[in-house]
Amino acid sequence: MSGPQVLPDDLVSAAIRVRENAHAPYSRFKVGAAILGESGRVFLGANVENAAYPQGHCAEASAIGAMIAAGDRRIRAVAVVGGEAGGDLCTPCGGCRQRIREFAADDVPIHIGDAGGLRRTFTLGELLPYSFGPTNLSF
Ligand SMILES: O=c1ccn([C@H]2C[C@H](O)[C@@H](CO)O2)c(=O)[nH]1
Ligand SMILES: [Zn+2]
Fold first, then answer.
1. What is the pTM (predicted TM-score) of this model?
2. Which residue range or ranges hold the CMP/dCMP-type deaminase domain (predicted)?
């Protein structure tokens, strides 16, 4: 399905907005994620921490859950926004790189932003080279 084009800046803007809804009272590090799915729809997520610390989860995991629940199965692009404007890039953690890999090819762009907007774009292959993925399991 092809609707109006969703540009990198649109995805980053959506991630900036949803970041406000993060539940991060322990780390105080709010993160927002926006995923462009194969249907052209955008799925949002924020990090959700928990008083039992290990039960918290990342913004990317929330957005992937929203995508799957809505029926999309492939990721076309990702935006992640976190950290202070001009500070360290908030790239996805190792676990989330693998979560994204489940639904995305090596050339899928991962846009990293902060409160000021888009900072830098990587491909999934750059962030997770020589990855293990669904094609490794041939049943
Ligand atoms: O890419 C990232 C990096 C960190 N976090 C969350 C996890 C935790 O709630 C907080 C601090 O690590 O930020 C994300 O959601 N995505
Ligand atoms: Zn993560």
1. 0.97
2. 6-135
